[in-house]
Design a protein that fits this description.
By secondary structure, this protein is α/β, with parallel strands linked by helices. The strands form 3 sheets. A 6-stranded mixed sheet has the order 8-7-6-9-11-10. α2 runs parallel beside α9 and α4 crosses α5. The longest helix has 15 residues. The protein starts with 9 loop residues before the first strand and ends with a helix.
Length: 270
Amino acid sequence: MSPAPFPYKLVATDLDGTLLRGDDTVSERTREALVAATAAGAAHIIVTGRAVPWTRSVLDDLGYKGIAVCGQGAQLYDAGAHRLLTSVTLDRQLAGLALSKLEAEVGPLALAASRDGVDGDVLFGPGYKVQEGLPAVYLADTAEVWTAPLNKLYIQHPELGDDALVKVARETVGSLVDIVMAGPGIVEILPLGLTKATGLSLAARRLGVKAAETIAFGDMPNDIPMFGWAAHGVAMANAHAELKAVADEVTTSNEEDGIAVVLERLLGAA
């Protein structure tokens, strides 16, 4: 009796906390598992909250040439051609209104913003703590944030933790914009209705793949819509509790080759 074929045509992986280890590298074991999955007929697509400028070097290091979903679904990026295929921008007037309403509720927020485009800068203002190792441009006057098209805003509060900030932001301005937590210290303001599932569904359509043929891996609440879209959602052991609650299974951590553990099992059955 011949083995069953590999059960998925698309393997969607988040980057930080999922595909990447803490030092921003991908283990050889995970690389080999992804190569084996693609050899078995599945496409691999990276779906990340990072905008293209913060993703490009990682994709180049991986030798990744396909479509990547970046900026929480805002950008479809052709990594082989180094060009944007689609891009959704944040309504700056609406975002400014949401920000002012939120600050009226919780007090001043530290602010950063991701400018649109393949080479768009990430700008950050006073008090905002940028993730170590990621390039960003300091602005003493955050009014400059609003002078060019944006994909998203990042907000931090001097006292509220991430979960608490997300909760109050959704309660206060959730009818104007979407609020997501993408990682520790990374709370984002996005266009209403934009999620990783939005971008992934567009990318899958280009590849001729359906949701029912997709397995997705992630670690944070911003991966919840992607899990809702895909046939099978796998949370890492290091994942946020909200994602684990909706996952179809939980694998080992990003430091322990959690993606490879699942793919090897599926490939062994194939």
